[in-house]
Amino acid sequence: MKDHHIPKATAKRLPLYYRYLRILNNAGKQKVSSTELSEAVQVDSATIRRDFSYFGELGKRGYGYDVEALMNFFAKTLNEDHMTNVALVGVGNLGTALLKYKFHQSNSIRVSAAFDADENITGRIIDGVPVYAMKDMVEQIKIQEIDIAILTVPAEFAQGIVDELVGAGIKGILNFTPARLNAPKSILIQNVDLTNELQTLIYFLHSQDEK
Predict the structure, then answer these.
(1) What CATH number does the domain containing 49 carry?
(2) Parallel, antiparallel or unpaired: strands 65-66 and 84-89
(3) Structural domain includes residue 3
């Protein structure tokens, strides 16, 4: 994403807006209001208008937003015109599920390689993605010009692998392990803690019941 000064919460919502605008554009719709967007993506209209305001004047009061123009703007903002190669490190149960995830719904994301230590898995092609041995990881990341790694390995191996990824030139890591990783500040790390997310959901459910 080109603009690094927008709030993180706004940045996380941009792909949601973009996907819905693509749906509208494919359906032939030309205009959409913030209220219509709000109902579709379940984000209040005031938040949508504030998110959009970080990028200047994207629509006109009383007219709404031009669907195609707004879609193209967010495509450019999200680098949808640029292919980003992604590596999956760890092809266990979660890793295999992620390989089957339909990343191709985004024209800009391609999982081009996977890596694992299990010799029963390496050398295979899973859902169109070749699985390489860990010893080949650094070389393949450089050859395939991979920018991002998804990490789904056991926590005790995570930091050592991250050190290798950084040395191979990885720019960002999506971390599904419970380990908190150390890397240079130039490396973007996004932590996805499924247990934490589930516990948070349970907390809010119980809070509602008490009310």
Answers:
(1) 1.10.10.10
(2) unpaired
(3) no
